[in-house]
Structures are given as structure tokens and as C-alpha cells.
Design goal:
Elements: H1 2-23, E1 30-34, E2 46-50, E3 55-59, E4 66-69, E5 72-74, E6 77-83
Antiparallel strand pairs: 1-6, 2-3, 3-4, 5-6
């Protein structure tokens, strides 16, 4: 009788653990987005692409320019990784 109860407890523990693990969200999807389509850079008024360094200098009104490194360059366009 003791073995039967032990098996039930262990079995329920395994099932419960399996349910908790399956309910965890998967990691965020990472994708490449064109630098001009990234929401945090929408207020930039000028984008200067440096093909040699593979980076873009972003100019904002009243702020210091920001340099962003391209994760991928395709057809002369800079793409950065964004998690969604």
C-alpha cells in the first residue's frame, strides 16, 4: 500500500512539472528590421549610412547624434535585430 501511494505522488509530481514547463512562454522571436522601421528611431530626421563601418548615424532634433551598428546589411540597407 505504501508503494502504491508513493507511485501516485511521484506520478502526480511528474505530471504537474510537465504542465508547468509546457505553460512557460517561449523566448521572444528575434527578427531583422530595417533601421527606419524601428519604433525608437522614428523621430530621427536624418539617417546617414556608412557602408565601410556598417553603421548608421541617426540625427534627432535637439539631441546628440546616435550611432547604431547594423546587424545585417542587404542591398545597401541596414537591418538591426529586434525582439518581438
Amino acid at each position: 500500500m505504501f508503494k502504491s501511494k508513493l507511485k501516485k505522488v511521484v506520478g502526480m509530481g511528474i505530471i504537474t512539472t510537465g504542465l508547468f514547463i509546457s505553460a512557460l512562454p517561449a523566448s521572444a522571436i528575434t527578427e531583422y528590421v530595417w533601421i527606419r522601421d524601428v519604433p525608437e528611431y522614428q523621430d530621427a530626421y536624418d539617417f546617414v549610412f556608412d557602408a565601410n563601418k556598417k553603421e548608421v548615424t541617426l540625427y534627432f532634433k535637439g539631441k546628440v547624434p546616435k550611432i547604431v551598428k547594423c546587424d545585417k546589411v542587404q542591398n545597401g540597407m541596414c537591418y538591426v535585430k529586434v525582439e518581438r
